[in-house]
Specification:
nine-stranded mixed sheet; single chain; 2 domains; binds 1,5-anhydro-D-fructose; alpha/beta; Dihydrodipicolinate Reductase, domain 2; binds NADPH dihydro-nicotinamide-adenine-dinucleotide phosphate; Rossmann fold
Length: 387
Amino acid sequence: MSQKPLNVALIGYKFMGKAHSQAWRTVGRFFDLDLDPVMKVVCGRDAKAVAEFADRWGWEDSSADWEEVVKRDDVDVVDISTPGSTHAEISIAAAQAGKHVFCEKPLTFTVAEGKKMLAAVREAGVKHMVNFNYRLCPAVSLAKQMIDSGSIGEVRHIRCTYLQDWLVDPEFPMNWRLRQEAAGSGAHGDLGAHSIDLARFLVGEIGEVVGTKKTFIKERPAEGTSSGLTAQAGEGTEKVTVDDASLFLAKFTNGALGSFEATRLAPGRKNFNRFEINGSAGSLVWCFEELNCLDFYSTADPSTQQGFRRIIATEGDHPYAGNWWPPGHMLGYDHGFTHAAYNLTQSIAKDKPCVPDFRDGAQCVAVLEAVDASIESSSWAKVEMID
Ligand SMILES: NC(=O)C1=CN([C@@H]2O[C@H](COP(=O)(O)OP(=O)(O)OC[C@H]3O[C@@H](n4cnc5c(N)ncnc54)[C@H](OP(=O)(O)O)[C@@H]3O)[C@@H](O)[C@H]2O)C=CC1
Ligand SMILES: O=C1CO[C@H](CO)[C@@H](O)[C@@H]1O
């Protein structure tokens, strides 16, 4: 490539580390870029494991010291794929060192911390992006275009469910996702954050919420070895300190109503991240388990032909899709991450804002926090609007 290099440092190298590595490896091959992403250095706490990862995935260097990595002169972007408890400290240090920041969701655990992160990237004048990858699926981006162009009229309802089943077995051992200090919350922030982002992207700002959360399995076998969403038990047991499930109702500032359900205890639901949106002139339905499909109902169709029609969002003129395979060839989970790497690279190259950004990440945290406030007060809670 003849473009200037864009040197990337990745912090965290397991589940999301792989997804982000795949994105950085692939993006310049399928998308025309104005900068050339270079996989410069990958970082984790276990020096041997991270060195092996670097070798396997093609990172030039590895390190067990993120504080040193974020200050390196040969790093332009810091990509954070570590548990949520680390996002604020790493993002702020990276921004203060003048690096662009790409951070996994949830951005952080409290609005106060989210505001500090936002202030740090703004003060440094760097680009910032939070990885709400599902809005970058072609079918979801298409839904946004259709809503904006009035295909379903005035939006009145959104029903979001994000259901998984990987924690349904009470013998599944502890890992960081079940500890409040590392994960912030359970299904609420892990899955609910994605639904909130989709709802904000497609419908608008959420103004008020009321909800509940529950931990059904309060104790689990202690952690032995764990890798991503699989684990082997160690000795003894440990208390679970996050929710298994969260439910809430929402009033949007534009008058729409929403319902949200997130759980990791729904047998048979693997990654059932679904929304149904009803407007005055039609409806749109999407589910990640069939991620290329968008179901559309239009009241404008002749009455004898009304019914949901399925759009397969793999045509060349569907968002992002034309960069991949010939029409009709399905995309998968990893493609959304490549779309994020594309958006960030181009926003840096062209000095344009990047979405979803840290404000989106912090606004999502404000909704999560308002649900917690509503549980505390057993009443509706207002969502703080972040500038
Ligand atoms: N957008 C999406 O679809 C998804 C987003 N996520 C989000 O991505 C983030 C990471 O999750 P995931 O990849 O599943 O987690 P994993 O447990 O698979 O990986 C976490 C990584 O972070 C490293 N790490 C952990 N603690 C620290 C620390 N204190 N300092 C530096 N490195 C650390 C670990 O390596 P080591 O132990 O060697 O330090 C490991 O490489 C979370 O915020 C999660 O919510 C997760 C899944 C999907
Ligand atoms: O998108 C996702 C898929 O599932 C993971 C495990 O619950 C989540 O962390 C993640 O954000």
